[in-house]
Amino acid sequence: MKQYAFDLHLHSCLSPCGGEDNTPANLAGMCALAGLEVVALTDHNTCGNCAPFCRAAERCGLLALPGMELTTVEEAHVVCLFPGLAEADAFSALVREKLPPLKNNPAVFGPQIYMDEEDRVLGEEDAFLAGASSVGIYDAAALAASFGGVAYPAHIDRPSFSLLANLGLWDPAMGFSVAEISKNCPPDLFDRPDLRGVPHFDGSDAHYLDQIRDAHQYMVLPERTPQAALAWLRSGAPASDGIS
């Protein structure tokens, strides 16, 4: 067993409001400089830049998981991670069908840019990725699992787009094994009766390169593979340095 520094919540230039410098290669390089070893790209409601990010990350010696930050119908954000690109792409196609039929306004939300692993622009996404899908939060974990993935609520301590802000409580019936918090999470949050014993860790939710955090938390794995990382999440992220 070995411990690996991780950050499982990163955005590329495909995300609305994501920095245009958050290209696949730039992201991978900055993650390596930050001392990270296991990372995930989780753009809003799409896995469209996961393939180039995974290839760029591999060049930098990182294990990258393809993923998505899904917006549920309740407007709660849920991180969804997958064992491979085929599963991520299939999930992404399903979510695309469940988005509202609206167009992105680049002047308001910024462009949504597809790139390759060399940071060459391939095009722009015109769908409104910032919108809520029709996937309910009680269905998100099982839906991700049906594609071989794992889902858990993002930044539950925040006052918007979070499980607690929008639904009010942690309900085990939602099927989540872990929770994500932000770096500014109140230290007493998990004293709440509904959150006692819920495993949690933080994600940078980096929309800009300077928001990527240095290595500070670790997962303990028998091998550095997507399957081992997902199994660690399913088992409740057994505690290591920096994990609660």
Name the features:
two-stranded antiparallel sheet; TIM Barrel; 10 strands; 7 helices; globular; 244 residues; six-stranded mixed β-sheet; alpha/beta
Description of the molecule:
This protein has 244 residues and is of the alpha/beta class. The protein has seven helices and ten strands. The chain has a single domain, classed as Alpha-Beta Barrel (TIM Barrel). The strands form three sheets. Strands 7-4-3-2-1-10 form a six-stranded mixed sheet, with helices on both faces. The mean pLDDT is 95.
The chain-level mean pLDDT equals 95
Strand count, sense and barrel status of the largest sheet are: 6 strands, mixed
Within CATH, the superfamily carries the name Metal-dependent hydrolases
**First and last CA, distance:** 19 Å
Helix content: 10-25%
Order of helices and strands: EHEHEEHHEEHEHEEEH
Rg over alpha carbons: 16 Å
State the name of the first-level CATH class: Alpha Beta
Q: What class would the helix/strand composition place it in?
A: alpha/beta
Number of strands: 10
Using the coordinates shown, work out and report the CATH topology: TIM Barrel
Tally the helices: 7
Summarize the structure in short.
Helices cover 25% and strands 21% of the residues. Helix 1 crosses helix 2.
Blueprint (SSEs and pairs):
Blueprint: E1 2-10, H1 24-33, E2 38-44, H2 50-59, E3 63-71, E4 77-81, H3 85-97, H4 106-109, E5 113-115, E6 121-124, H5 137-145, E7 150-153, H6 163-167, E8 179-181, E9 200-202, E10 218-221, H7 226-234
Parallel strand pairs: 1-2, 2-3, 8-9
Antiparallel strand pairs: 1-10, 3-4, 4-7, 5-6
